[in-house]
Amino acid sequence: MSSHCHCNTEPACTALATMHTPHMVYHHHHYHHCVERDGRDEGHETVSPRISKGFANRLTPPITTSFFHKETLNIFSKQPILVSEIPIETVTWRTEVYKYVTRVRPDDPNFKKNGGEIFIIMVHGGTSDLGPFPLIKCEKTIKVPSSIIPMRQYPASNSGTQSDDNWSYSIDFMNTMPMFSNGGNSVFDFEASYKEDFVRSKFKQTGTETTDGVQFAATAEPDESQKIDDHTIIGLSVFKCLDPAVFPVTFTFEASARGEMVTVPIHRTISKKVTIDFDFFPVLA
């Protein structure tokens, strides 16, 4: 796994003094049937720095379910996005990854032909702490290889409801997953769902699918006086795969910041490649 920063505005870089660069801290946790997200147990709402009106996570099937796996990725931990060593945004980005084999056992040689599907759901959390310069977009991008199909990014662009300076959003995901129990020999319907309502103050959130992944961002109109403030990272991404043999799969996670330094436009990106595997062993009854 690696990370790097791309510099696109050399005039701004040379005009700034050098500051100390904080070191990046990266931790990777890989586990099955874990129920922790940012200090919360699934299905329970706790106090968080975001303005939240409701939360319910029902993405984990019964522990006897076969061909399901969950892991938590710490993509970035207090990682600065720099302009000449000055942090314009500091990103902590954690992602819970839920993987489900549905309809057909993964060892079936005709998995795709018989209607088998593997769903990958990512629940994003973390924080975005901004530096001394105004930003108009803080964007998160997930790029995938051609073997992975981007399905949906929540909440979608233009889905917010405005009230004064506030924008209310809702992640409301639900999908029936035909999954396996009894050591992989029986099929049952698992109703996977995730609900989270939240509010952005003085800026909007966007979300969209691309040909090679998904994007979501905190964004402000450049002609308005309102700018993005410190905020929590919130989002849910849905992907699909039709071939169990493609695992392990490499995803590329990118965090970018756009804004203006004095009168010079700035755009910086940090990225990390993360390999995601899938343990296809059945759970014994």
Give structural notes:
The chain is mainly beta. It has one domain. It is 2% helix and 59% strand. The protein contains one helix and 19 strands. The strands form four sheets. Strands 2, 6, 7, 8, 10, 16 and 17 form a seven-stranded antiparallel β-sheet that branches. Strands 1-19-18-9-15-14 form a six-stranded antiparallel β-sheet. A hairpin with a 2-residue loop joins strand 18 and strand 19. The N terminus is likely disordered.
Query: Strand percentage, roughly?
Result: over 45%
Q: What is the number of beta strands? A: 19
Rg value: 20 Å
Low-confidence stretches: 1-51
Total DSSP helices: 1
User: How many structural domains can be distinguished in the coordinates?
Assistant: 1
Task: Provide the residue-averaged pLDDT.
Answer: 84
Which structural class matches the secondary elements?
Answer: mainly beta
Order of helical and strand elements: EHEEEEEEEEEEEEEEEEEE
- Broad shape: elongated
Main sheet specs: 7 strands, antiparallel
Cα-to-Cα separation, first versus last residue: 36 Å
- The helix fraction, in percent, is under 10%
What structural keywords apply?
seven-stranded antiparallel beta sheet, disordered N terminus, 1 helix, 59% strand, mainly beta, 285 residues, single chain
Please describe the topology of this protein.
Elements: E1 3-7, H1 10-14, E2 28-30, E3 36-37, E4 40-41, E5 51-58, E6 68-83, E7 86-102, E8 117-130, E9 135-143, E10 148-154, E11 161-163, E12 166-181, E13 186-201, E14 204-210, E15 213-219, E16 231-232, E17 235-241, E18 249-261, E19 264-276
Antiparallel strand pairs: 1-19, 2-6, 3-4, 5-13, 6-7, 7-8, 8-16, 8-17, 9-15, 9-18, 10-17, 11-12, 12-13, 14-15, 18-19
